[in-house]
Design goal:
It is built from 4 helices and 35 strands. The protein starts with a strand and ends with a helix.
Length: 476
């Protein structure tokens, strides 16, 4: 392992850059074989749990992991991993699942903006509802510029914000994030908050009274015209746990609006920042047999490339839902009310064939569209042993009529030779696919969570030909 220094620029702390050069594994080098793709696999450093990916500029991907304080850059030509540690001083602002102060954070998303910067949230345990209100559990929003090697870690100004979702707003030049802990959406203009040295070097310290010993270097806006601050929009209700979201841009069906998922609320919601207008659209009626609110776990949300319909995942049931956005904008009352069968008339549900009510730990996670408007969905297993088939990748065609479930991927793990067994020697699932990203060449990257591996599917004709027909011949 080569240990080098990564210059952070004037006024910024130098950040450790660990380069891990390891060989990638080529499972299907011959396109003339049984399948029209090959797989490449790159292992991350030991004990890394990759949860989210963002495609880079060329034949690369960026990854964040749960319970980590690093950003990872993964390449296959040549194969290797660079690890960049996020600056932090003093005590940690994060609280883990047991209520202890932690030096590592949870992250659920990483994105790349139009300037090439990477953005991701860092938060303490966001489902720890038993924490007293006076326990300090803060979050940070982190940006990293590959061009300059600079981090900027923005402290979120209030306690128990539990940031999950994050999105870039090109039209307004603002970064948005979702606070699941206090049910709010927040935005800021990075050009107005440039004191990265102050943010990165903020000395996190909790005094004997359980409060921050020093004022945070960033505050919320107090009036509409104020700059150099974070603007907070509180949402109606208090028990949905705001998760992921998207920002509609000029040319989209609902320009300026933000559409978000409720992790526990079983619904999607809408906020228009300019007017303050809010709305909420339930998924379907959930019977008592389903148990607690945690069952649904509504997660990622994207806009369909063809007509702008909203597509979101329901990880608790292994489903993907398409919401008729144009119809909802024309007749919102029709989409707010469930029909006699308990379903939303504006939503079409696709069931991924991985879910089992007796083993709900085997389900969906993340999604991404390829250049042909096919939707790729990762599936994962949370524990062993399992009597079900191993997780794979689901692919829904652009017309939303067919689904291929690619469940025979022969992917190696660091301790295995490509076996398709469901659990490894340590009792961890050998396949638990979480993060996914699709690059400009139509290569599909996805992370194997417990095994700490990033996989890549390379198709025979790259982005020149829709891969779905060939996949459907084998997997539909």
């Amino acid at each position: 392992m080569l240990l080098a220094a990564c210059s952070a620029g004037p006024g910024l702390p130098t950040t450790a850059n660990n380069t891990h050069q390891r060989p990638a594994v080529d499972e299907y080098a011959d396109y003339a074989g049984e399948r029209a793709y090959r797989t490449l696999s790159v292992p991350l450093p030991a004990d890394t749990l990759p949860i989210a990916l963002a495609a880079g500029e060329d034949n690369d991907v960026w990854a964040v992991a749960e319970f980590s304080n690093s950003l990872f850059h993964v390449t296959t030509s040549p194969p290797g991993v660079e690890e960049f540690e996020v600056p932090r001083r003093g005590q940690s602002p994060f609280i883990d699942a047991q209520g202890w102060r932690s030096g590592v954070a949870q992250s659920e998303r990483v994105i790349r903006d139009s300037h090439g910067r990477l953005w991701f949230p860092q938060t303490g345990h966001w489902l720890n509802f038993s924490l007293p209100d006076d326990v300090q559990n803060y979050s940070r929003i982190v940006s990293y510029s590959p061009a300059t090697g600079r981090f900027c870690a923005y402290p979120v100004p209030d306690n128990n914000s539990a940031v999950l979702g994050i999105a870039w707003d090109e039209a307004r030049n603002r970064l948005w994030f979702a606070q699941s802990g206090n049910n709010a959406l927040v935005s800021f203009n990075p050009d107005e908050l440039r004191a990265c040295d102050s943010y990165n070097n903020y000395d996190w310290h909790i005094n004997d009274e359980g409060q921050l010993a020093r004022p945070l270097p960033i505050a919320y806006c107090e009036h509409p015209g104020q700059g150099a601050c974070m603007r907070k929009y509180e949402l109606e209700g208090d028990n949905g746990l705001i998760n992921q979201f998207l920002v509609q841009q000029p040319g989209d069906p609902d320009p300026g609006a933000i559409w978000y998922t409720e992790f526990l609320g079983g619904a999607i919601g809408r906020l228009h920042p300019a007017t303050g207008e809010q709305d909420r659209f339930p998924l379907y009626r959930v019977g008592e047999i389903m148990g607690s609110r945690f069952f649904l776990r509504v997660h990622q949300i994207h806009a369909h490339p063809d007509n702008g319909d909203l597509v979101f995942s329901v990880n608790g049931t292994g489903q993907v839902v398409r919401f008729g956005l144009q119809h909802a904008l024309q007749d919102p009352s029709h989409c707010r009310t469930l029909d006699a069968a308990g379903n939303n008339p504006c939503m079409t549900v696709m069931q991924v064939p991985v879910f089992d009510t007796a083993q709900a730990q085997l389900t969906t996670h993340s999604m991404a569209f390829d250049s042909f408007a096919n939707l790729w969905i990762t599936t994962w297993a949370g524990k062993c042993p399992m009597d079900l088939a191993p997780p794979g990748l689901a692919v829904i065609d652009a017309d939303w009529t067919r689904m291929a479930f690619v469940d025979q991927l022969e992917l190696p793990t660091p301790a295995q030779d490509g076996s398709t067994v469901t659990c490894d020697a340590d009792g961890k699932p050998a396949r638990a696919f979480k993060g996914i990203a699709i690059d400009q060449h139509n290569n599909v990257w996805f992370s194997n969570y417990f095994q700490g591996v990033v996989h890549k599917l390379v198709f025979a004709r790259g982005g020149e030909e829709d891969p779905f027909p060939a996949l459907c011949q084998e997997y539909c």
